[in-house]
Amino acid sequence: MKRAIIKTTHLCKSFSIGKEKLDIINNMNLEIYEGDFTIIMGSSGAGKSTLLYAISTMDQYSQGKVELLGKDITSFNENQIAKIRKNDMAFIFQGINLLPDMTLFENVSFNGYSPSKSKKSVNQKAQLLLKKLGLEKDVYKYPSEVSGGQKQRTAIARALINEPKIIFADEPTGALNSSMGMVVLDILTQLNNEGQSIVMVTHDLKAASRGNRILYLKDGRIDGELSLDHLGEGSLKEREEVVYKFLNEKNW
Predict the structure, then answer these.
(1) Residues 86 and 117 sit within 8 Å (Cβ to Cβ)
(2) Which long-range contacts does 231-240 make (Cβ < 8 Å, 24+ apart)?
(3) 144, 170 in Cβ contact below 8 A?
């Protein structure tokens, strides 16, 4: 039986616009499981990114409870939140957000430095991660000197430096062309096959087909769910056809 690593109970997120209250996440009960590649989809305004940020400590929610890795984070203070972000999770965004004045190597290694680790061991790990992601010839280049795909692969290496239990990704291929996007998706798929838990928001069918569980949001609620576990490592075309049929039924 799979272990729930994220659990929400009656989760709500709302905004006030003048005298009106806009519910973005509406009384959501959800479990996300260890080892899964969970995809969050839905039409524009459905609450996809809002949900991702709420369950990953990146944004506050209005009501309800979030349990992350067995800990109720509802009442966590800033220091506790910072610790769980540093030690247990990582983020990959569409905007990539590499530091422009640091080399690719420095962007990755800097994120791993801590009093509990030797600088040498972190540097060695950064080199290994960059090599694993095909960037061994680019480690001393700056972000302005490499392609969007190379930047995103660097962002993935940076995300992995602290061995996170969960990777949260928000449209990680959204700023890439199709070939670069496929490279990034191949990397995320490989990481998941190695046991990495991933939660990803996407609007792209090809990206969604890499997951094993798809959650479809509508008006701040879970309007449907699709499991791809039965397909195993079947062909991408077969997976895409199943996902397309599911999304079509949702009028996506």
Answers:
(1) no
(2) 233/193, 236/206, 236/209, 239/209, 239/210, 240/205, 240/206, 240/209
(3) no
In Å, how far from its chain's centre is CA 150? 18
Helix (H, G, I), strand (E, B) or coil at 11: strand
Buried b (16+ CB within 10 A) or exposed e, 142-178: bbeebebbbbbbbbbbbbbbbebbbbbbbbbbbbbee
Residue keyed to tokens 């969050």 = 40
Q: Quick one: fold of 35-57+81-249?
A: Rossmann fold (3.40.50)
pLDDT, tens digit, for every residue of 38-88? 999 998 889 999 999 999 999 989 999 999 999 999 889 999 999 999 889
- Taking Cα atoms as reference points, which of 108, 98, 97, 95 lies closest to residue 135? 108
Output the six-digit token pair for 238: 């077969």
The reply to whether the predicted model has a pTM over 0.90 is: yes
State whether the Cα torsion 131-87-4-48 is positive or negative: negative
Q: What is the CA radius of gyration of the chain?
A: 18
Beta-bridge partner residues of 199 = 38, 168
